[in-house]
Design a protein that fits this description.
Oligomer: single chain
CATH superfamily: Aldolase class I
Number of strands: 8
CATH architecture: Alpha-Beta Barrel
Largest sheet: 8 strands, parallel
Distance between the termini: 13 Å
Bound molecules: D-xylitol-5-phosphate, zinc ion
Length: 223
């Protein structure tokens, strides 16, 4: 992998009483993308926030907003997230989210955003083979979605490697992003397996110095 590693702080772990300042702080700390988790209380048990808050985040940073929709029927709301200023819209691949994955990803592109597809820990890579050519990002969940602060699942490492191999075979080069339980110890392994974008909530917002936290993830990624 010659591509530069990207770090995407997940605002789910931010102090929501000071959301704007928190987003500006990780922006200054060297974030490449800002990861924004949308949870609807149906696809996952928690509810986070919706397009109005994404719009507020948009006003706090110029960095790309990497919006991860953990929702049922994303086709109903993608236009609102596009209007709110999302740069990437990531769709869960499981039928419990949408039954028309190919169509939704195409619609995201028509809205002018970069489509991304998400695979949960139990979802095999084969499930997204037929949509790989449509996406700029594949997000591999390294925890089960729904909460921050969970433990990294090491059994996802071979899956990341298989995905990278499949992309290479197909002549495709999407970003491979990993989400969940990432810290300097796990990052080295996920990067070695073939990931190039690291989402980190607790590892960044749980630190006293965000700049140092981003730098140590980068250092770990560099090996
Ligand atoms: C989990 C979310 C993650 C979460 C990651 O459902 O998709 O983005 O915020 O948080 P950490 O880094 O704490 O595991
Ligand atoms: Zn996420």
């Amino acid at each position: 992998m010659t591509r530069a590693i990207k770090i995407a702080p997940s605002v789910l772990a931010a102090d929501f009483t000071r959301l704007g300042e928190e987003v500006q702080a990780v922006d200054r700390a060297g974030a490449d993308w800002i990861h924004v988790d949308i949870m609807d209380g149906r696809f996952v048990p928690e509810i986070s926030f919706g397009p109005t808050v994404v719009e507020a985040i948009r006003r706090s940073t110029q960095k790309p907003l990497n919006v991860h929709l953990m929702v049922v029927e994303p086709e109903r709301t993608i236009e609102r997230y596009a209007k709110a200023g999302a740069d990437h819209i990531l769709i869960q691949s499981e039928p419990g989210s949408t039954v028309h994955l190919h169509r939704v990803l195409s619609q995201v592109r028509e809205l002018g955003c970069q489509p991304g597809v998400v695979v949960d820990p139990a979802t095999p890579i084969a499930w997204i083979e037929q949509v790989l050519h449509l996406v700029g990002v594949v997000l591999v969940m390294t925890v089960n979605p729904g909460f921050g602060g969970q433990r990294f699942l090491p059994e996802m490492l071979p899956k990341i490697a298989d995905l990278r191999r499949l992309c290479r075979e197909r002549g495709l080069d999407p970003h491979i992003e990993v989400d969940g339980g990432q810290d300097p110890l796990t990052v080295r392994k996920t990067i070695e397996a073939g990931a190039d974008v690291i989402v980190a909530g607790t590892a960044i917002f749980g630190a006293d110095d965000y700049g140092q936290a981003v730098a140590s993830l980068r250092l770990a990624a560099a090996g």
